[in-house]
Amino acid sequence: WVANPDGQTVKLAEAYTYQPAPSLVEVKPRAGALAGGTAVTVSGNDLLPGLTVAIGGIQATEIEITSATEVKFTSPAAEAGLVGLILTNPDGQSATLAQAYTYQPAPSLTSVTPQRGASRGGTVIVLNGTGFFDGAQVTFGQTKAGSIKWVSETELRADTPIGEKGAVDITVTNPDGQVVKLAQAFTYYSSPIIDSIIPNRGRTIGGSRVQLEGEDFLPGVKVSVDQTSATTVEVISENEIQIVTPPQAKGSVDLLVTNSDGGAVKVADGFTYFQDTAFALTGSRPADEAKHVPVNLTEIRLEFGPEEELGLETVNVDSLEVKGQLKPPQSAEEEMLDSTTVEDDEGRVEGRRRYKGQVRLEGTSTLVFQLEQPLAEEEQIRITFAATLQDIAGNRLPADTAVSFTTGLGVWPGDTNHDRRVTILDILPIIQHWGRQGAARQAVDQTSWAVQPAVSWPVRARTYVDANGDGIIDEGDVIPIAQNWRQQWPSSPTSTVDQPADQPSDQPAAPPLQVDLSPEAEHLEIYYRMLGALERFSGQSENRQPLRTWLEKQILMATQQSLPSETRLWTNYPNPFNPETWIPYQLAEVAEVEIRIFNLHGELVRQLDLRQKTAAYYVDRTQAAYWDGKNQLGEPVSAGVYLYQLSTSRGHRQTHRMVLIK
Measuring CA to CA, which residue among 427, 421, 426, 415 is closest to residue 551? Predict the structure, then answer.
């Protein structure tokens, strides 16, 4: 805007700009090499094209203005020290930042401690020198250190990375790019690792053979036990060493493994010495003189005491011998009652059998004999030991060392006649020994077709007849027959002793299903109680049906060929029931018959008028009294215990209980 004295004016719009002075915010990096050449970036405001940069009074080169807030340049060479930075815009305005940049000499590396470490890495080393800056990088050979800590300008700490065996250079690189290298400054060695010591204890006299498992064991490795060299050191592989311990005092000691290249590892209290004792058997499972040992036993354990240690080289399949001797025969009375007696699995009556198995050492002092076949029933087992079995001190067991025990019986649930398979014939022993009682078996799943250990009843045969193992022979024993219908024993294992050539077959021919008893009336209730048990059996119907058919046939034959000698009320079937049940009875003479059903309060629930009946058995479903679980009004009754009473015009009354379930 210009005005002459005569009042005339002229105006030029936007002809001049007032520009703010530039400002500095940040300099990166804040240090660089004396020779210059460091790429520096300055952040600020109002930076104009054409500005100049002076660092320590020396003009920078290669200036690049990327925006009004950033400029890049290359530092010139200068003397060591802290210098200022000046940015000057073309309009002459400038910004100054004192002590903005440091010219520093290259770092120096004077020492590395330690100078050796394991090839697996992880060794913490200290690097001393000068000119170290925060952010410095350390490499071992070509591999960057795992962790780097800047302590001061004269100290760095770093974790060694994994490396190859041998010497490597160590290089330190400051953030400004200046580098120092110390050639062959660190040596990697093969440091062994110990994962396990087996056994980790032995006698004070020494001589224990110990196996060390781990990694990186080198030929020529040395092992010391509490600063005493092992008697023998054998390198099996880079992962296994076997040593023989030297004598030491009782207690725990350190174990040191040192490789031929100097790499070493120590296990504090890695081995324990104990006082030498006499070599003797201290216990067994089964215990010596044990009775009724389960025939399904799978292993025999022989213990020589916690302070003992067996010689590994003496433990093998021949270290012990397990033999069985059959018990003496039963008395004549028992033989007469025991109609199901059969020969043992080998068809052998006398003599010993040697049991096969595998022998292993568990820990340092327990022998385990793993049986390859079940033990025979009621056999006297004797275990003896070979003279070659020794402890690590060369001691042998006393010549008369032995363990003896006696096995019990083995019941295959459902094979009541002990003929090696489950068929219709297995009903007959239940009838023959009905109501007898003896030792119950441990509760097991009767549906599992496997031998179950048992204690022999006074009459051995009855042990097998108690098919469900509840200690009484009754209708419940028909259930395992149905559950395991047509099952057979597995093939007998081969014995190592001489056997008769004509052994019985493991799979005898199936007996015919048409097996009949003499139709005796006293068996009728047994048959019906078995039928009732089968009604409650929830297993496969194809297993149940052959048994039902046979029982119904026996009932029909008995009822058709004889008349009852007395009037009697039978047990209802099924019982418990839901919602219906049949009430069987028998009449010795013609009479009017009715069945009354009461609750436990004595209140009449239902009356079944059966009218006049002739002398006969009224036991099957077509003839027995039927109750549908309803009261006189036709209403279903609640679950619970009910009484049912047989009344006849001849004055006979008899009452039983039954259970209705929902």
Answer: 427
